[in-house]
Design goal:
Layout (H helix, E strand, L loop, with lengths): L1 E6 L3 H13 L4 E6 L5 H6 L2 E5 L9 H7 L8 E6 L2 H12 L4 E2 L3 E2 L8 H11 L1
Parallel strand pairs: 1-2, 1-3, 3-4, 4-5, 4-6
């Protein structure tokens, strides 16, 4: 199975992406910054995750556009962030693609995020 993790490239979000990747046993995981994102990677993924530090990062413009034109109703998706305001943004950009979203992962302080918390969160996504 394939998993894709798309980030805004910020250090805190990259750190969370690495923890998520390490918790996805049995998956071939690709982590990419949104500025390097290729739509075919998303279409090939069985599950995907999107994270950003701040709402509406400029690097997400292509991703936003693609998500507004594709139906991902059969795929599970998880969103993650370190700022509560970003949860609304991420939820909004995913609404039109109809992906099955679990509860968002709000990591507040990415440095203190525990692998056990990520594993518990992933159970709701997978």
């Amino acid at each position: 199975m394939k998993a894709l993790i798309i980030t805004d490239g910020s250090e805190s979000i990259k750190n969370i992406a690495e923890i998520i990747s390490g918790s996805l046993s049995g998956f071939k995981v690709k982590i990419c910054a949104a500025c390097e994102f290729d739509g075919t990677d998303l279409l090939a993924a069985d599950v995907f995750f999107i994270g950003c530090e701040n709402a509406s990062p400029s690097s997400f413009k292509y991703l936003e556009d693609m998500l507004s034109h594709v139906n991902l109703a059969l795929r599970n998706c998880g969103i993650f962030t370190v700022k509560e305001k970003s949860i609304k943004y991420l939820t909004k950009i995913l609404s039109s693609c109809e992906a099955k979203m679990g509860e968002p992962l709000f990591a507040g302080d990415a440095e203190k995020l525990k692998k056990a918390a990520v594993n518990k969160w992933l159970k709701n996504i997978l």
